[in-house]
Amino acid sequence: MANTHPIPELLAPAGSxxxxxxxLSYGADAVYLGGQKYGLRxxxxxxxxxxxxxxxxxxxxxxxxxxxxLNSFFFDSDFLELLEFVSFLESIKVDALIVSDLxxxxxxxxxxxxxxxxxxxxxxxxxxxGKFWKDYGIKRLILGREVSIHEAAQIKKATGLEVELFIxxxxxxxxxxxxxxxxxxxxRDSNRGGCSHSCRFDYDLIDDQNKKSSFxxxxxxxxxxxxxxxxxxAGIDSIKVExxxxxxxxxxxxxxxxxxxxxxxxxxxxxxxxxxxxxxxELNKFTxxxxxxxxxxxxxxxxxxxxxxxxxxxQTRVFGTIIDVVEDKFFVIDSLTKILPKSxxxxxxxxxxxxxxTIETLRDLNDQELxxxxxxxxxxxxYIPGVAKNNIVRVLS
Length: 397
Ligand code: SF4
Hints:
By secondary structure, this protein is α/β, with parallel strands linked by helices. It has two domains: 9-304, Aldolase class I (TIM Barrel), CATH 3.20.20; 316-396, Beta Barrel (Elongation Factor Tu (Ef-tu), domain 3). Helix content is 27%, strand content 24%. The protein has ten helices and 20 strands. It has helices at 17-25, 49-61, 82-91, 102-111, 127-135, 149-159, 181-186, 228-233, 248-268, 273-283, and strands at residues 9-13, 30-34, 65-70, 96-99, 116-118, 138-142, 162-169, 203-206, 211-214, 221-223, 238-241, 291-292, 316-326, 330-335, 343-348, 354-359, 362-363, 369-370, 378-382, 392-396. The strands form four sheets. An eight-stranded parallel beta barrel has the order 1-2-3-4-5-6-7-11, surrounded by six helices. Strands 16-15-20-13-14-19 form a six-stranded antiparallel β-sheet, covered by helices on one side. A hairpin with a 3-residue loop joins strand 13 (316-326) and strand 14. Helix 1 (17-25) runs parallel beside helix 2, helix 5 (127-135) crosses helix 6 (149-159) and helix 9 runs antiparallel to helix 10 (273-283). It is globular and about 65 Å long. Iron/sulfur cluster binds next to helix 7.
């Protein structure tokens, strides 16, 4: 049966050129990333001019898109180099800019033809606001995380604009971008790329008699996979994953899982319970806090607080990357961590499925047997059909 609803774009984070290539190779339709300035993730490996150019070329060769974030809070001095940067981005054919400040929108709209997406930092939560931004040349609204899927559909209908909603990742306990806890507790400005995630810290709550330690401001992580049907039927144009600061295993796993879920939905027009359970298991295989659906269905409440000691739950860690494949003979893994013989690994294929394999004997490139691996050691594994160069390999923890 033909699918009657367009399948949303899968938009993944790219905190570095390596993660851009991983996310796009594992199924993301588009990535968002920051340059050296203006991008709200000061600690990410933000892209140099050369890396931006290479990243856009890599994406466009695969008919995929690159969006560049310019969504930090701007002061007058920040405008001095803005035009030069925008001209460069236009010259390398970046697909859109993600912007929150009206002055920045004005400069870009007046001086370039690059489509502008309104950043979630602008906290657009309603149709009136959306219409206002439309008049200023915005093509897509990245709605605040407080907006439900149903409300997003109404905003799309009322404005005629594309809408993008977060489906997965870490959450702010405040309205996105309107938080200064980090500024005042750590001297690091949340709205200029320096957030220290102060809301995740353990705080002492003290009244007259009692003192209680609590993570009372820490939010669970968003996971909207079970609502994929609602996203599609509501006509959401792009589903976005948070996490530019997270590692290559996250970039691979999240892109692969959501792409496979979207492909499955496209074929079957639904995701049955068994398949949903499989995808949920995959989303549990990397470090995260407990999941919840945010405000995608009903407004988030008290149950959104992640007040647990165990900050992370993960069942796998990255083992390495396949750097060479000699068909029918062997492949080579560049290992990042120590493993022992008889370790169970999982190879994330670029197409659907995962290869599970137990490495009975560890061998180096000279076929010498190893007692264990060490970081950056190259190990040789007998060929398995389906493996490919640059596949990410994870190991069960
Ligand atoms: S401190 Fe927490 S709530 Fe505030 S901006 Fe940072 S992540 Fe968001």
